[in-house]
Structure formats: structure tokens, C-alpha cells
Amino acid sequence: MARIDLEHIRHAYGEKPKSEADYALKEVHHQWNDGGAYALLGPSGCGKTTLLNIISGLLQPSEGRILFDGKDVTNLPTQARNIAQVFQFPVVYDTMTVYDNLAFPLRNRGVPEAEIDRRVREIIEMTDLGGWARRKARGLTADQKQKISLGRGLVRNDVNAILFDEPLTVIDPHMKWQLRSQLKKLHRQFGFTMVYVTHDQTEALTFADKVVVMYDGQIVQIGTPAELFERPSHTFVGYFIGSPGMNVLPAAIDGDRVRIGEETIGLDHAPKIAAGARTELGIRPEFVRLGREGMPVSIRKVEDIGRQKIVRADFAGKPIAIVVPEDGEIPAEPRVAFDPAAINIYADSWRVGSKEAGR
Ligand code: ADP
Ligand code: MG
């Protein structure tokens, strides 16, 4: 297992990038701690696969260095990096049996047969492939083949890291849940460094100790699920994590008060912000109180989602979402109040006071 340092990584696929927009990775400078379980979360196209391929050596970055435990591996080929990588779609040898597919990475490294047998049986049990062990991979379903790929990634326990690139996309929902908890268990047992890519926030939040959020070729926030929820460092994170996402409203700061349209809201501190800077106020729909006190809103729509209701309203001329409990009353003359402790202030998309702000 290893600590992985990514130093000022940039990557453009084209030969001659003309502008920042041509870079799939703009500037990734980050450390994956030895034994950490990380989820890498971000929308499609933000650079997650590119980053994994750079770690495993399938791709050479245009700029920057990769270190494993302090040793520069930037120019080492994939085989020399000792990384297990599981892709979104199955990679199996069709003419081999399920058992031999799983044994392959171990035989390749000269592990004794008795040890191979023990480990392969463990993986077979974990992936529920028992009935198929002696069958050729050809003819199995995509779901079963993906379990083989997953098993091949997990069968070795001497790797520097395991990288998973949305590995459960083709797996059915029930099995997904089961495999995820198995992965977590294996991680606890062997303590490998694990980077798990997903665009599914629920998957990321239930799975990892630390969630790394990417947006447009950059890492925009690293935190625990609670940190990401409560203090999104970037308006994108607030919008992407949670459902519905954070409300983001154009705002003007005046000391320890903030103005939105005609309304003024008190803050629990005066944000340090340059006069005239473009500012936005972020507040989660869960922290907007709907009642008879506060500032007027006009309700456009109420969506009943079971245990809660989502109220869509106009506030100071902007659309806003409010979450109310199932039995929450909606007054005839509705008003809203914002919990000051739950307000985040952003200058140019970055939260004021977050370490990335003002970059
Ligand atoms: P993600 O895995 O987050 O969906 P990718 O790393 O696959 O994102 O892609 C990041 C960006 O790089 C996207 O704009 C994508 O179109 C581009 N890209 C990915 N692979 C290639 C490639 N082989 N050639 C050119 N552009 C690519
Ligand atoms: Mg991808």
C-alpha cells in the first residue's frame, strides 16, 4: 500500500492545447493517504477517468509528477506501478473459466497455488459467483462479468492502490449494495489505498471516509460527507450534493448583513469581502424556515416526496427550494427565514473563508 502524491498535474488530450479549456485536468495537486478510502465524485466529463488513468500509468500527464511513497513514478509503465484498476465495463478473458480469470493476476506474479486457491475462493464467495467458478466467462451476463473484473482487482493484496472507475454501473441495485459493503469490509481488513470514482453522490457518501469532489478538471473540495453538505467550498458542490441542491442567490454584502433584492438578512459574522465583489448566498433547502415570520415568498409548486415536501417558491425575484416536513403547514401568507448559521457566502463561486476562496 502506498501514499500517492499528485503534484501539479495538468493534462490535455490534444497535441497543442490553445487555452485552459483544452485541458481535461487543469491543476490537480493532491495527496491520497496510505490506506485511505476516497470517493472521487463529479459530473460526467469533469476528468475523473483521466485522473485515474494518470495514477495507474495508462496515461502520461502533460505536466506534473506522480509519487508513490515519495518515489517518482511519473515515467514508470503501468506494470511497474503495481496498481489494480477496475473499469466501468468488464475486462475478462472470455475463453478462461471464472476461476482462472480470478487466479490470473496471482499466477502472473508466481503466487503458490495453495495460496491462489484460498484467495480465489474468498473472492468467489464475496461476489456470489460460486455456481459459475468452472464455467467459461464467455456467455455470462454483463453483471457476472463485471463481478469477475471486480474480483480480479481485489484478489491481490499487495498492490499500492486499487482504483475503481464507476465499477457498479452495470450491476443490479441489490447486488450493488452487497458488493459495496463487501468492499468496505475488505478495505478495513487489508487497508489498501482506495480511490472509488462515482457520479452517484449517495454511493460516494455512504462509502468513503473522505469525498473528493471534482469539477471542470479541478478538485474543488475534499471533506467528510457532513462537511460537504454543511460547508460547500464551491457553489457547484452545494448544488451537486444533496437533493434538492443548495439554493444560490445573488447577494450584496453590507457589513454583517446581506442584501438580496429588497430583503436584508442578518449574518452571524461579517464576511471579509472586497467592496463591490460579486457575491452569492448559499442556503440549503433544509435550512430555510417556512412560516408566518420573515420575508415574503410566493409559492409556485409543492412536490410531495413521501416523508418531506419540496416547496418551490419565488423569493426576492429568484426561484428557491424549501424542504418542509410531511406534516408541515403551508401558511396562506407564507414567509421565510434563513438560519444565519447555515448561510454560506460565496465570492465568485468560492466560499469566503474556505481555503480555496479567492484563487
Ligand atoms: P469523467 O470520467 O469524469 O466522465 P473523463 O476523464 O473521461 O471524464 O473526461 C474528461 C474530459 O476529457 C472530457 O471533456 C472528455 O471529453 C475528454 N476526453 C476524455 N478522454 C479523451 C480522449 N481519449 N481524447 C480526447 N478527449 C478525451
Ligand atoms: Mg469516466
From TrEMBL:
<comment type="similarity">
    <text>Belongs to the ABC transporter superfamily.</text>
</comment>
<dbReference type="InterPro" id="IPR040582">
    <property type="entry name" value="OB_MalK-like"/>
</dbReference>
<keyword id="KW-1003">Cell membrane</keyword>
<dbReference type="InterPro" id="IPR003439">
    <property type="entry name" value="ABC_transporter-like_ATP-bd"/>
</dbReference>
<dbReference type="InterPro" id="IPR003593">
    <property type="entry name" value="AAA+_ATPase"/>
</dbReference>
<dbReference type="InterPro" id="IPR027417">
    <property type="entry name" value="P-loop_NTPase"/>
</dbReference>
<dbReference type="InterPro" id="IPR047641">
    <property type="entry name" value="ABC_transpr_MalK/UgpC-like"/>
</dbReference>
<keyword id="KW-0813">Transport</keyword>
<dbReference type="InterPro" id="IPR008995">
    <property type="entry name" value="Mo/tungstate-bd_C_term_dom"/>
</dbReference>
<protein>
    <submittedName>
        <fullName>ABC transporter ATP-binding protein</fullName>
    </submittedName>
</protein>
<dbReference type="GO" id="GO:0005524">
    <property type="term" value="F:ATP binding"/>
</dbReference>
<keyword id="KW-0472">Membrane</keyword>
<keyword id="KW-0547">Nucleotide-binding</keyword>
<dbReference type="InterPro" id="IPR015853">
    <property type="entry name" value="ABC_transpr_FbpC"/>
</dbReference>
<dbReference type="Pfam" id="PF00005">
    <property type="entry name" value="ABC_tran"/>
</dbReference>
<keyword id="KW-0067">ATP-binding</keyword>
<dbReference type="Pfam" id="PF17912">
    <property type="entry name" value="OB_MalK"/>
</dbReference>
<dbReference type="InterPro" id="IPR012340">
    <property type="entry name" value="NA-bd_OB-fold"/>
</dbReference>
<feature type="domain" description="ABC transporter">
    <location>
        <begin position="4"/>
        <end position="241"/>
    </location>
</feature>
